[in-house]
Amino acid sequence: MDSQLFARALGIIGPGTLQRAELSGRLHAIQPAPGIAFDGRDGKVTLASQQPDEAHKDGAGDLRAHQAGVNSIAIDRLISGGAEASIKLWDLEHSENTQQKYINHPTAVAKKSASSHQYGITHLCFYPFDSLAFISSSFDHKLKVYATETMTISATFDLDSVIYSHSLSPIADHLLVACATQHSAVRLVDLRSGASTHSLAGHQRSVLSVAWSPHEEYILASGSSDGTTRLWDIRRSANSLGVLDLEDSVGIVGEDGLGKNARSRDHGKAHTDAVNGVVWTDDGKYLVTAGHDERVRVWDMSTGANALSHFGPIIKNTHLSTLLPLLVPSDLLEPGKQIMFYPNQKEILMFDLFDGTLLKRLRLPGAFSVPVRGSEGQGSLRSRTASLTWRAGDVALYSAHSDGTIRVWLSRTLEELEAEKNEAKDADDDVDESRKRKREALEDIFRDLTKQKITFT
What is the Cβ-side half-sphere exposure of residue 394, based on CA atoms within 13 angstroms? Predict the structure, then answer.
């Protein structure tokens, strides 16, 4: 960092380059923030008097955001969807100071009811242009639109099929919600007209993940349990632009070498098993897919070629639910770089997206299995990372887990860690000094009492 500051002082690099270099350094210093926890019981944000892990041990209540597990989280303001069908809103402003230990409580809750979701939440997302509304989907076949502040339902769409995930374009004027469902066709819900009849047919089995292009408002990608990843142009009568083929590292180059007037590819698989994760880079140049073959693949979207990024045998992916790798916003990185966080079983893995280098392993604290009580008695549930989200404008990662917890990961350099350690030591010294003064005061009182002569009459 000193060399970057020196280069900036000499005018060799600009302020933007210096800022990206500093943010990139902080990204590599990301660490768990054990002092911040989420307690799903009703109440206000409180200053914790002890470490959350200690509070978890000492009996009364587990510090879980959702007792049955967290299936999805989304952030502008943080919302979380639970396996017990509730949706909770959290205020993050009170827990920004990492020097303190905070237990967050939900500021609003949409509980399971006749009008809200009946079964577990599968996916949540905010409106791209307005955080005062968000969309939820559930195993109950319903897609719902909520007002964020009041947690009231604005619209409900019944798709007659389990909805695994949904996507709303971040740039389009149209308000089409693409839905990945148990049905083999991608369902499109028009929020303006309320229609939910339009579908995109092409997959042979259920669709598990969908994602709109961040640069082409009518282009959509979908992943299916048949192993294919399809691209769609919703303006075309045929809709499908073709499929991605894992054996093709050249792509369809077309007349100009970039796919112009090229014929579409109708056969081929992106993975040898189900595709349950589809994510675009924020510049729209690459698509990332995750599959049950325990592979993550990167695709050059100018030609549809497999970029041949290899992440090794460490990748695990066996759960039917949607699993979305998290791509770090490019404005936090140096030009040409892209970082991916992957939600593995016992840890979160940080990779260089293009060469597959493992940069960091964020291990999850606590037990890998959590006790649960069912109709047949006591059992255990294997904990997994269900969802990841990034807080815009900050180096902060939030993760949701099937054990019911929401964890926070913040950038903390060695200097900051040392400062926190010294502050904690000073606080302990202050407590010890206060206890010493109280003890001396009690000893003085006891001494004065024992010196007094007591006469009984």
Answer: 17
* pLDDT averaged per 10 residues, the chain (length 457): 52 54 74 89 53 42 83 94 95 65 90 93 93 95 95 94 96 92 95 88 95 95 96 86 93 57 77 97 96 96 94 92 93 86 93 95 74 54 86 87 92 60 57 74 73 59
Sheet holding 108-110: strands in order across?
Answer: 70-74, 78-82, 87-90, 108-110
Cα Rg of the chain, angstroms: 26
pTM for the full predicted model: 0.82
Which DSSP state fits 376? Answer: T
CA distance 362 to 171: 33
Across 170-218, where does the E strand assignment appear?
176-181, 186-190, 198-200, 207-212
Output DSSP code: residue 254.
B
Tell me whether strands 30-32 and 406-411 are parallel, antiparallel or unpaired: antiparallel
Sign of the C-alpha dihedral, residues 356, 358, 364, 367? positive
